[in-house]
Write a structure and sequence with these properties.
The protein is an alpha/beta fold. Helices cover 41% and strands 15% of the residues. The protein has a single domain, classed as HUPs (Rossmann fold, 3-Layer(aba) Sandwich), CATH 3.40.50.
């Protein structure tokens, strides 16, 4: 089985996330693309992401991908009462799903540029192939090529950059602005129903 994982905080999941995953499916035809919401993102404020927020994020990802049979959602990081390190997650996915080759790992340039600071980055780079999406308006590949030379293997996707950020969506929600144009409709309904982000 060919596996691609899509880890992220998904706070909340939005259309750019879905479009990136659909692009990857069309290009590589992986058997499964597995969305993995982080329970406690190690590089972000734990208080913002813990507890109720974590469960909302997981529920919203499940709603967003439900209509696609080639997408799965894993709560694997919710079973660990500690920060969601990608190295640990990849090792567990390897043990559970037993992919036929290296796991593929969807990531944006905004996160990938800091990959060397990640937990056990030298070990992680041996286990995965990164699928890289541009997350900036003026992209210069030079620093990323240097990472590739150091063993962080990636393939750069040519999908046009969608300037959507989860922080922007949260701010729009607080201001009672419409979000149906940038998040899946079921996610928008969920956010309204449970009053997510308005507290």
């Amino acid at each position: 089985m060919s596996i691609c994982i899509y880890p992220g905080s998904f706070n909340p999941i939005h259309n750019a996330h879905i479009n990136a995953a659909l692009f990857v499916k069309k290009k590589f035809n992986f058997d499964k693309i597995v969305f993995i919401p982080a329970y406690r993102p190690p590089h972000k404020d734990i208080k913002e992401f813990d507890g109720e927020n974590a469960m909302h994020r997981l529920n919203m990802v499940e709603l967003a991908v439900k209509e696609y049979d080639f997408f799965d959602v894993s709560a694997i990081e919710y079973t660990r009462n500690k920060p969601s390190y990608s190295y640990d997650t990849v090792c567990q996915i390897n043990d559970i799903m037993k992919p036929e080759d290296k796991i593929n790992f969807i990531i944006g340039t905004d996160a990938f540029q800091y990959i060397k600071t990640w937990h056990k980055a030298d070990e992680l780079k041996k286990l995965v192939n990164f699928i890289l999406f541009i997350r900036e308006n003026y992209f210069d590949e030079t620093p990323y090529k240097k990472l590739k030379e150091e063993g962080y293997n990636y393939e750069l996707m040519n999908l046009a950059f969608e300037d959507i950020s989860s922080s922007e969506i949260r701010e729009r929600i607080k201001q009672n602005k419409e979000i149906c144009d940038i998040v899946p409709i079921k996610v928008a309904e969920y956010i309204k129903k449970y009053n997510v982000y308005k507290i």
